[in-house]
Amino acid sequence: MLPRRVKAARTASAGGPVASRVTSCGAVDVQQFWRLIDEARAQIADPVDAEAVAARAGALLSALPRAEIVAAERVLSTLLADSYRAQLWAAAYVINGGCSDDGFDYFRGWLRLSSSAWTRSGRFWTVLM
Fold first, then answer.
1. Do 50 and 105 touch, CB atoms closer than 8 A?
2. Which domain holds residue 111?
3. Which residue blocks in the chain are alpha helix, DSSP H?
């Protein structure tokens, strides 16, 4: 059994948005962070829209206790720090036809929120090295 349960409940209005209630576990680890992102992705119309995923994840996080919000931010900061690599910046430059500092930050955020199990596992990053 997982230490954190994520439960989704439909709103009372027919066809309304899916609301989520995430119960407290005192800390958020990487797997729990990805579960939250997956839940956010499942609750929006276009799961490829990274901005919508981020907005929904923020809404889900806002229902959590402060300690869990801080723990989730630490996980995200660690993931972003791990992706701050010259090889990835070069890939972003080629993919986007250029890549400024801000553009690289946006690219890394998009990549993290759009990531699959393959990128989460670390194999993606190994290929770029």
1. no
2. 83-129
3. 30-42, 50-62, 66-82, 86-96, 101-113, 117-120, 123-128
66 and 21 part of one domain? yes
> For residues 11 and 83, which has the higher predicted lDDT (pLDDT)?
83
Do 46 and 65 lie in a common domain?
Answer: yes
Handedness of CA 18, 47, 75, 119 (dihedral sign): positive
Same-domain status, 51 and 88: no
Average pLDDT over residues 70-74: 93
- Nearest alpha-carbon partner for 2 in 30, 33, 36, 25: 25
* Residue in this structure with the two tokens 């209005």, named with its chain if needed: 13
Condensed to tens digits (0 to 9), the pLDDT of residues 77-102 reads: 988 888 888 988 998 999 899 999 99
| 16 neighbors 56 (Cβ within 8 angstroms) | no
71 and 17 in a single domain? The answer is: yes
Which DSSP category does 84 fall into? -
110-121 pLDDT, tens per residue? 887 766 655 565
